[in-house]
Amino acid sequence: MLELLASKAPVPAGGSVAALVVSMSAGLVAMAARVSEDAGAVAQAELIRERVTPLASKDAHAYGDALASMRSPSGATAEQRDESIRSALVHAAEVPLQIAEAAANTASLAASVAERGSETVRGDAAAAALLSAAAARAAANLVAINLAAGSDNELVARARGVAEDAADSARFVLDL
Q1: According to the CATH classification, is domain 11-174 in 3.20.20.70?
Q2: DSSP string covering the chain, please?
Q3: In a 10 Å sphere around its CB, with 0-12 CB exposed, 13-18 middle and 19+ buried, how is residue 19 labelled?
Q4: What is the pLDDT of residues 16-37, one digit of tens each?
Q5: Domain limits of the chain?
Q6: What is the pLDDT of residue 77?
Q7: For residue 153, how many other CB atoms are within 10 A of its CB?
Q8: pTM for this one?
């Protein structure tokens, strides 16, 4: 995966990396919650990890499909081709939005574990919150980029909102 990421290939790229960062951050939260004997947080972190890990591959496929659509859009008329491209870009934006939402959830859970959990793993929980906030911001940026050619600003606003929520969680852990 790392070799492919470093290659000239257009995918995997930023969205896939953001998904993997969130997955690893959720793993850190699960570890910190286990040490802190917080079974509820462990379960939540594991659910996030299970949900977000496949998004790395899903993002690569969605973005690859969008690139293919831009190179050779389907449709007989210019209007149909434009709609084909728009639809592919919206789909490519939906996956990083899901990644950003998972990142915000992870950052919030990490902040909670950092606050209530064992001091021995507070730094790990804080790292998870900070990494998740960065992944949320990266994913939100990808949503905005993918929709630059379209008019689906509601998705951009949602992505930016969840990224800000994740940033709030990260700021919280820095104040502990």
Answers
A1: no
A2: -HHHHHSS-S-S-HHHHHHHHHHHHHHHHHHHHHHTT-HHHHHHHHHHHHHHHHHHHHHHHHHHHHHHHHHS---SSHHHHHHHHHHHHHHHHHHHHHHHHHHHHHHHHHHHHHHHS-GGGHHHHHHHHHHHHHHHHHHHHHHHHHTTTS--HHHHHHHHHHHHHHHHHHHHHHT-
A3: buried
A4: 999 999 999 999 999 999 999 9
A5: 11-174
A6: 87
A7: 10
A8: 0.93
